[in-house]
Amino acid sequence: MEQETTVIPAIQSHFEDIQKIFYEGFSAKLGFITKKTDLQLSISRDFKLFNIESAEQEFVGIIDGTVLGFLSLRFSGQAKEFHSQSLNMRELLPKYGVFAVIRAWIFDLIFQHHPEEGELYIDTVGVLAEARGKGVGSSLLRFCEIYAKEHHCKKLTLMVIYENPKAKALYERLGYTVVSSHSLWLLKRSTGVSGAYFMEKKI
């Protein structure tokens, strides 16, 4: 049963909650970086995958005072703003190893997207496993529509990997359509991810 979800800008005190959600939802997909659980917990911070210090980009979904989901957004001309605790290359290499860093770089390069004028790009959406089915993901995506309209955007866009059909089905139910897809042998070989659909919704 769906419950009312409050969506607010993320702040520093939400970092551990976001990291937990990220780990639950993405650790298996990012296993190509490391199989070590202790390192997987810090991947999101070390590799600059989201920035909870920028209220312009990061939001959390809360039910009864508990953070159950998060999302990252980007507008045209807006690059990712990284967390101040993220590591530089000299720090990443000894911690994860050269091959893991190269694979992460390939993954990031292939999935880079630069929003155009009038576009709000949904960079990341995550929901705590125990909260799935409560409408948190849908609430976060509906918030994106309101936020996009407030900022005079004409469309919402996102990417979803081939290996996540449940997420793709949710986006389709909410009106998103596939406009392109891409897969590369190098991506599959280096990361285990076959490719991704690029989806959009006109608003």
Q: Give me the Rg, rounded.
A: 16 Å
CATH 2nd-level architecture: 3-Layer(aba) Sandwich
**Sheet having the most strands:** 7 strands, mixed
Low-confidence stretches: none
Strand order of the largest sheet: 1-2-3-4-5-7-6
Beta-strand proportion: 25-35%
Q: Please write the CATH class name.
A: Alpha Beta
CATH fold type = Aminopeptidase
Count of domains:
1
Large-scale geometry: globular
Written as H for each helix and E for each strand, in order along the chain, the element string is EHHHEEHHEHEHEHE
Assign the structural class, choosing from mainly alpha, mainly beta, alpha/beta, alpha+beta, or little secondary structure: alpha+beta
Number of alpha- plus pi-helical segments: 8
Average per-residue pLDDT, rounded, comes to 83
Q: N- to C-terminal separation?
A: 27 Å
Classified in CATH, the superfamily is: Gcn5-related N-acetyltransferase (GNAT)
Beta strands, count: 7
Helix proportion range: 25-40%
